[in-house]
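Student: Please help interpret what follows.
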Amino acid sequence: MAFGRFRTFCLMGLTAAAPLLAAAPAVAASSGILGARSAARDIAAGVAATGATVERSATSAKFVFDLNRPVAVDAYVLADPDRVVVELPETNFLLDPALGRAVVAKSKAEPPPLAPSFRFGQFARGRSRIVFDLSGPARIVKAVAEPTESGGAARLVVELADTAPDAFRAAARAARAAQLQKAPRDETAAAAPPQPQVKPLVVIDAGHGGVDMGAVGAKAIYEKDVVLDVSRRLAAKLEASAKVRTLLTRNSDEFVPLNDRVKLARKSGAALFVSVHADMLNETSVHGATVYTVSDRASDAEAARVAATENAADKAGGMAEAEEIGDVNDILFDLTRRETRAIGHQFATSLIDFWKAGGDLNKNPIRSAGFVVLKAPDVPSVLLELGYMSNERDLAKLSSEQWRQSAADRVAQSIERYFTKRTAATDEIALPAVGLAAAR
């Protein structure tokens, strides 16, 4: 076929999947023969996916998951980002998580597959999900767990095909409405008097601080002072709107380790984490704001350099090299982390849109790299570089109280718009928080 055919195959039995058993949410963590027997009993009592076959092209996709028994399946599409969600009872996915890694076209002339990647894992107690990322609008041709000819076992078949954008958006709106209607299923909760919704919490992280001065501009303008001032102004602006709550990782000139910033956001139940910085380069002509998100690989050499600099903050504060946080290698955390990063990228795009209306942007304003401070697996996070203290024009702005207030106002507007578009905080869109809460 002209557009190429993407096909992978994975079949894993209990023996081959033994290293993954501890990662499966419904299987008790244990070791040795007793652990294997315990896992086998749990699988016999519940649902297990032991293998999968994948076929995909630019216009269609077919996924077949081998199950130990038939189950009820619900499937629907969601937008922003575009994806297909398949819900099923809590399932032990005895599959290599790498099976769902993104597949790309072999050449620029060849279009990407319709469903380039997917992930699977527990969504909430008693529920699991498979989420398929889409490269374009798609419709669900088929999503059903069919009994095999021999009986007992089943095959979950998910078939997708491309569709018109308008049709996809309409289906996504209908699915979102259906999810909202499903929310008050608990009769006790429905009968209880309505409780005021807790406003979402935004954690604002003023970079550096204390012995870690960050970048230092001409006339001894310190990054740590500039970003603290902007962070305080941002918090004040958001609190005045009464739409969100705010929490500063530091409200004075003090040193806060990177991991402590992340832990604070997670412990406080933050819905968004914004880290504020102002960079310094040897090249004085570079100017404008940049928004960074977290990724395993840097988007470019400059992003890698910035991440390396920011990740060295603990060393600048006199600490030993920081340990990696939150990198739990199981399917649930991988699912949560991917969804969180996708949401963080959405906010980054929105922030850039607001910033460009009244401020300078870097020529490449959205980048990504492995920033330690952005690695909370369940809190959408971005790092905003306000500008470059090495650039004369940027430094003049960063030194201006009026500009700092204007910058804080633009960031506040983008945050308010972000939460306005995500008003249904308890529906499927809040996947990361729901998934991890269920796992704890």
Remarks:
- The domain at 6-177 is CATH 2.60.40.3500 (Immunoglobulin-like).
- Confidence is low (pLDDT under 50) at residues 1-44, 183-196, 318-329, 424-440.
- Residues 24 and 92 are 5 Å apart (CA to CA).
